[in-house]
Amino acid sequence: MSKSLRHVAKWILRNTLISNESLTPELRLRLITEQSSLWRSTPDRCPFADPFWAFYWPGGQAVTRQVSGVLPFYPGNGLYILDNPCLFNGANVLDFGCGCGSASIAASIAGANVVANDIDTSEPFIHLFGEEQRTLAEGIIQEHFVILKKKHKYKTLLKKDGIEDALVATAVNYRLNAVPTTQTRFVADNMLESEDNRTTHAFLKAGKSFVVLGDMFYDTEFAEKVLTWLKRIKESTGARILIGDPNRHPLAEEQLRRYKTRVIKKQLAGYSIPDSVMREHYGFSAVNVIELQ
Q1: CATH number for the domain that contains residue 177
Q2: What is the pTM of this model?
Q3: Looking at residues 259-282, what average pLDDT do you find?
Protein backbone atom coordinates (compact mmCIF):
# COMPACT_ATOMS: atom_id res chain seq x y z
CA MET A 1 0.00 0.00 0.00
CA SER A 2 1.24 3.49 -0.80
CA LYS A 3 2.29 5.55 2.19
CA SER A 4 1.24 8.69 0.28
CA LEU A 5 -2.31 7.44 -0.22
CA ARG A 6 -2.52 6.43 3.42
CA HIS A 7 -1.29 9.81 4.63
CA VAL A 8 -3.81 11.70 2.49
CA ALA A 9 -6.67 9.63 3.91
CA LYS A 10 -5.42 10.24 7.46
CA TRP A 11 -5.05 13.97 6.84
CA ILE A 12 -8.64 14.14 5.58
CA LEU A 13 -9.93 12.28 8.62
CA ARG A 14 -8.03 14.52 11.01
CA ASN A 15 -8.58 17.95 9.45
CA THR A 16 -12.10 17.90 8.05
CA LEU A 17 -15.50 17.88 9.72
CA ILE A 18 -18.51 15.75 8.89
CA SER A 19 -21.18 18.04 7.48
CA ASN A 20 -24.61 17.78 5.90
CA GLU A 21 -25.43 21.51 5.82
CA SER A 22 -26.12 21.66 2.10
CA LEU A 23 -28.73 21.09 -0.58
CA THR A 24 -28.23 17.37 0.05
CA PRO A 25 -28.70 16.92 3.81
CA GLU A 26 -29.11 13.16 3.42
CA LEU A 27 -25.42 12.93 2.43
CA ARG A 28 -22.67 13.34 5.02
CA LEU A 29 -19.35 14.57 3.69
CA ARG A 30 -15.95 15.31 5.21
CA LEU A 31 -15.30 18.96 4.40
CA ILE A 32 -13.46 22.10 5.41
CA THR A 33 -16.28 24.32 6.71
CA GLU A 34 -16.66 27.52 8.71
CA GLN A 35 -16.32 25.43 11.85
CA SER A 36 -13.02 23.85 10.75
CA SER A 37 -9.80 25.03 12.33
CA LEU A 38 -8.31 25.37 8.84
CA TRP A 39 -10.99 27.83 7.73
CA ARG A 40 -9.13 30.85 9.15
CA SER A 41 -5.66 29.38 9.34
CA THR A 42 -2.62 30.34 7.27
CA PRO A 43 -1.74 28.42 4.07
CA ASP A 44 1.23 26.71 5.71
CA ARG A 45 -1.20 24.78 7.94
CA CYS A 46 -2.51 22.89 4.91
CA PRO A 47 -0.25 20.51 2.96
CA PHE A 48 -2.37 20.89 -0.18
CA ALA A 49 -2.05 23.99 -2.34
CA ASP A 50 -5.70 24.03 -3.44
CA PRO A 51 -7.79 21.30 -1.80
CA PHE A 52 -10.88 21.89 -3.94
CA TRP A 53 -12.12 18.44 -2.98
CA ALA A 54 -12.47 19.55 0.67
CA PHE A 55 -15.31 21.94 -0.19
CA TYR A 56 -18.85 21.24 -1.36
CA TRP A 57 -19.25 23.77 -4.15
CA PRO A 58 -22.72 25.10 -5.10
CA GLY A 59 -22.78 23.57 -8.57
CA GLY A 60 -21.80 20.18 -7.21
CA GLN A 61 -24.59 20.42 -4.66
CA ALA A 62 -27.16 21.22 -7.34
CA VAL A 63 -26.20 18.42 -9.70
CA THR A 64 -26.08 15.98 -6.78
CA ARG A 65 -29.51 17.18 -5.68
CA GLN A 66 -30.73 16.38 -9.18
CA VAL A 67 -29.43 12.82 -8.99
CA SER A 68 -30.80 12.28 -5.49
CA GLY A 69 -34.20 13.69 -6.29
CA VAL A 70 -35.61 14.54 -2.86
CA LEU A 71 -36.20 18.29 -2.90
CA PRO A 72 -38.67 19.84 -5.38
CA PHE A 73 -37.23 21.19 -8.60
CA TYR A 74 -37.59 24.53 -10.30
CA PRO A 75 -41.01 25.02 -11.99
CA GLY A 76 -41.00 24.63 -15.74
CA ASN A 77 -39.04 21.43 -16.11
CA GLY A 78 -41.55 20.23 -18.68
CA LEU A 79 -41.73 16.52 -19.25
CA TYR A 80 -38.19 15.92 -18.03
CA ILE A 81 -38.77 14.40 -14.56
CA LEU A 82 -35.60 15.02 -12.56
CA ASP A 83 -36.70 14.30 -9.05
CA ASN A 84 -36.66 10.56 -9.62
CA PRO A 85 -33.49 8.56 -8.98
CA CYS A 86 -34.91 5.85 -11.26
CA LEU A 87 -33.66 8.07 -14.08
CA PHE A 88 -30.12 7.06 -13.12
CA ASN A 89 -30.83 3.46 -12.17
CA GLY A 90 -28.79 1.22 -14.45
CA ALA A 91 -27.26 4.22 -16.23
CA ASN A 92 -23.57 4.84 -16.84
CA VAL A 93 -22.51 8.05 -15.11
CA LEU A 94 -19.20 9.86 -15.53
CA ASP A 95 -18.64 12.26 -12.62
CA PHE A 96 -16.13 14.58 -14.27
CA GLY A 97 -14.07 16.45 -11.68
CA CYS A 98 -15.70 14.50 -8.87
CA GLY A 99 -14.12 16.50 -6.02
CA CYS A 100 -15.60 15.30 -2.73
CA GLY A 101 -17.54 12.60 -4.62
CA SER A 102 -21.10 13.74 -3.84
CA ALA A 103 -22.53 13.16 -7.32
CA SER A 104 -20.78 9.80 -7.62
CA ILE A 105 -22.23 8.71 -4.29
CA ALA A 106 -25.74 9.86 -5.21
CA ALA A 107 -25.54 8.07 -8.56
CA SER A 108 -24.34 4.90 -6.84
CA ILE A 109 -27.24 5.07 -4.40
CA ALA A 110 -29.58 5.39 -7.39
CA GLY A 111 -28.11 2.20 -8.89
CA ALA A 112 -25.85 3.66 -11.57
CA ASN A 113 -22.51 2.41 -12.86
CA VAL A 114 -20.13 5.22 -11.97
CA VAL A 115 -16.74 6.48 -13.10
CA ALA A 116 -15.43 8.98 -10.53
CA ASN A 117 -12.78 11.06 -12.28
CA ASP A 118 -10.49 13.76 -10.92
CA ILE A 119 -6.88 14.88 -11.28
CA ASP A 120 -6.57 17.21 -8.27
CA THR A 121 -3.00 16.39 -7.27
CA SER A 122 -0.56 17.62 -4.65
CA GLU A 123 2.27 16.43 -2.45
CA PRO A 124 1.06 15.75 1.11
CA PHE A 125 3.02 16.44 4.28
CA ILE A 126 3.86 13.45 6.45
CA HIS A 127 2.14 13.50 9.86
CA LEU A 128 1.73 11.09 12.74
CA PHE A 129 -1.79 10.06 13.68
CA GLY A 130 -3.62 8.09 16.32
CA GLU A 131 -4.21 4.37 15.97
CA GLU A 132 -7.94 4.75 15.26
CA GLN A 133 -7.39 7.18 12.38
CA ARG A 134 -4.51 5.11 11.01
CA THR A 135 -6.60 1.93 10.96
CA LEU A 136 -9.59 3.61 9.32
CA ALA A 137 -7.42 5.30 6.69
CA GLU A 138 -5.70 2.05 5.78
CA GLY A 139 -9.06 0.31 5.51
CA ILE A 140 -10.36 2.96 3.13
CA ILE A 141 -7.33 2.77 0.86
CA GLN A 142 -7.22 -1.03 0.85
CA GLU A 143 -10.92 -1.31 0.07
CA HIS A 144 -11.21 1.32 -2.61
CA PHE A 145 -7.82 1.45 -4.30
CA VAL A 146 -5.49 -1.50 -3.75
CA ILE A 147 -8.15 -4.19 -4.17
CA LEU A 148 -9.76 -2.42 -7.11
CA LYS A 149 -6.41 -1.98 -8.81
CA LYS A 150 -5.59 -5.68 -8.52
CA LYS A 151 -9.05 -6.88 -9.49
CA HIS A 152 -9.65 -4.58 -12.44
CA LYS A 153 -6.03 -3.85 -13.33
CA TYR A 154 -6.48 -0.10 -13.15
CA LYS A 155 -3.30 1.87 -13.25
CA THR A 156 -1.96 3.02 -9.92
CA LEU A 157 -3.18 6.38 -8.70
CA LEU A 158 0.34 7.37 -7.74
CA LYS A 159 2.14 9.92 -9.86
CA LYS A 160 5.73 11.04 -9.83
CA ASP A 161 5.03 14.26 -7.89
CA GLY A 162 1.87 13.51 -5.94
CA ILE A 163 -1.43 11.68 -5.90
CA GLU A 164 -5.05 12.27 -6.80
CA ASP A 165 -6.24 13.59 -3.46
CA ALA A 166 -9.80 14.11 -4.72
CA LEU A 167 -10.20 10.39 -5.38
CA VAL A 168 -9.08 9.58 -1.84
CA ALA A 169 -11.60 12.13 -0.54
CA THR A 170 -14.29 10.50 -2.68
CA ALA A 171 -13.44 7.08 -1.25
CA VAL A 172 -13.55 8.47 2.30
CA ASN A 173 -17.03 9.88 1.67
CA TYR A 174 -18.27 6.65 0.10
CA ARG A 175 -17.25 4.89 3.31
CA LEU A 176 -18.80 7.61 5.48
CA ASN A 177 -22.18 7.12 3.77
CA ALA A 178 -21.91 3.30 3.79
CA VAL A 179 -22.28 3.20 0.00
CA PRO A 180 -20.67 0.20 -1.75
CA THR A 181 -18.18 0.87 -4.54
CA THR A 182 -18.81 -2.39 -6.40
CA GLN A 183 -20.20 -0.43 -9.37
CA THR A 184 -17.74 2.46 -9.11
CA ARG A 185 -14.37 2.99 -10.77
CA PHE A 186 -11.86 5.58 -9.59
CA VAL A 187 -10.08 7.02 -12.62
CA ALA A 188 -7.29 9.61 -12.51
CA ASP A 189 -6.89 10.20 -16.24
CA ASN A 190 -6.77 13.79 -17.52
CA MET A 191 -9.60 13.28 -19.98
CA LEU A 192 -9.34 16.79 -21.42
CA GLU A 193 -5.74 16.25 -22.48
CA SER A 194 -5.92 12.57 -23.38
CA GLU A 195 -5.45 11.55 -27.00
CA ASP A 196 -7.19 8.25 -26.34
CA ASN A 197 -10.60 8.30 -24.68
CA ARG A 198 -11.75 4.96 -26.06
CA THR A 199 -12.51 3.52 -22.62
CA THR A 200 -14.58 6.57 -21.69
CA HIS A 201 -16.43 6.52 -25.01
CA ALA A 202 -17.18 2.81 -24.70
CA PHE A 203 -18.51 3.33 -21.17
CA LEU A 204 -20.82 6.16 -22.23
CA LYS A 205 -21.98 4.48 -25.45
CA ALA A 206 -22.95 1.26 -23.70
CA GLY A 207 -26.47 2.48 -22.87
CA LYS A 208 -28.26 5.27 -21.03
CA SER A 209 -25.47 7.57 -19.92
CA PHE A 210 -24.74 10.90 -18.29
CA VAL A 211 -21.76 13.17 -17.77
CA VAL A 212 -22.24 15.26 -14.63
CA LEU A 213 -20.02 18.09 -13.49
CA GLY A 214 -20.20 21.14 -11.27
CA ASP A 215 -18.30 24.38 -10.75
CA MET A 216 -15.95 23.81 -13.65
CA PHE A 217 -16.47 27.16 -15.37
CA TYR A 218 -14.41 29.85 -13.66
CA ASP A 219 -12.70 31.50 -16.63
CA THR A 220 -13.67 31.75 -20.28
CA GLU A 221 -10.56 30.10 -21.74
CA PHE A 222 -10.88 26.93 -19.70
CA ALA A 223 -14.67 26.99 -20.04
CA GLU A 224 -14.43 26.87 -23.82
CA LYS A 225 -11.97 23.98 -23.62
CA VAL A 226 -14.34 22.01 -21.37
CA LEU A 227 -17.39 22.83 -23.50
CA THR A 228 -15.59 21.71 -26.66
CA TRP A 229 -14.72 18.39 -25.03
CA LEU A 230 -18.24 17.94 -23.68
CA LYS A 231 -19.81 18.64 -27.05
CA ARG A 232 -17.52 16.09 -28.67
CA ILE A 233 -18.45 13.52 -26.02
CA LYS A 234 -22.16 14.21 -26.50
CA GLU A 235 -21.97 13.93 -30.29
CA SER A 236 -19.93 10.72 -30.25
CA THR A 237 -21.72 8.88 -27.43
CA GLY A 238 -25.18 10.38 -27.03
CA ALA A 239 -24.57 10.97 -23.32
CA ARG A 240 -26.58 13.65 -21.61
CA ILE A 241 -24.44 16.47 -20.19
CA LEU A 242 -25.65 17.89 -16.86
CA ILE A 243 -23.88 20.88 -15.32
CA GLY A 244 -24.30 22.55 -11.93
CA ASP A 245 -23.25 26.20 -11.77
CA PRO A 246 -24.22 29.29 -9.72
CA ASN A 247 -24.57 31.62 -12.71
CA ARG A 248 -20.89 32.30 -13.31
CA HIS A 249 -20.03 34.53 -16.28
CA PRO A 250 -18.39 31.87 -18.53
CA LEU A 251 -21.79 30.15 -18.90
CA ALA A 252 -23.83 33.32 -19.46
CA GLU A 253 -25.76 33.41 -22.74
CA GLU A 254 -23.83 36.37 -24.12
CA GLN A 255 -20.53 34.64 -23.37
CA LEU A 256 -21.63 31.33 -24.90
CA ARG A 257 -22.19 33.19 -28.19
CA ARG A 258 -18.54 34.30 -28.19
CA TYR A 259 -17.07 30.80 -28.08
CA LYS A 260 -15.93 29.10 -31.28
CA THR A 261 -17.65 25.95 -30.07
CA ARG A 262 -21.36 26.72 -30.13
CA VAL A 263 -23.47 25.09 -27.45
CA ILE A 264 -27.05 25.57 -26.30
CA LYS A 265 -27.97 25.28 -22.66
CA LYS A 266 -31.33 24.38 -21.17
CA GLN A 267 -32.12 25.06 -17.53
CA LEU A 268 -33.47 21.98 -15.82
CA ALA A 269 -33.51 22.99 -12.17
CA GLY A 270 -32.82 25.93 -9.91
CA TYR A 271 -32.30 26.23 -6.17
CA SER A 272 -31.87 28.88 -3.54
CA ILE A 273 -28.60 28.35 -1.73
CA PRO A 274 -28.73 27.85 2.07
CA ASP A 275 -27.23 30.66 4.14
CA SER A 276 -24.28 28.57 5.32
CA VAL A 277 -23.39 27.63 1.74
CA MET A 278 -23.77 31.24 0.61
CA ARG A 279 -21.34 32.44 3.27
CA GLU A 280 -18.77 29.80 2.37
CA HIS A 281 -18.97 30.36 -1.39
CA TYR A 282 -18.63 34.04 -2.23
CA GLY A 283 -22.23 35.05 -1.62
CA PHE A 284 -23.88 33.13 -4.47
CA SER A 285 -27.59 33.01 -3.64
CA ALA A 286 -28.84 30.64 -6.34
CA VAL A 287 -27.56 27.73 -8.39
CA ASN A 288 -28.84 26.04 -11.53
CA VAL A 289 -28.62 22.68 -13.23
CA ILE A 290 -28.40 22.99 -17.00
CA GLU A 291 -28.20 20.47 -19.80
CA LEU A 292 -26.12 20.98 -22.93
CA GLN A 293 -28.27 20.47 -26.00
Answers
A1: 3.40.50.150
A2: 0.78
A3: 81
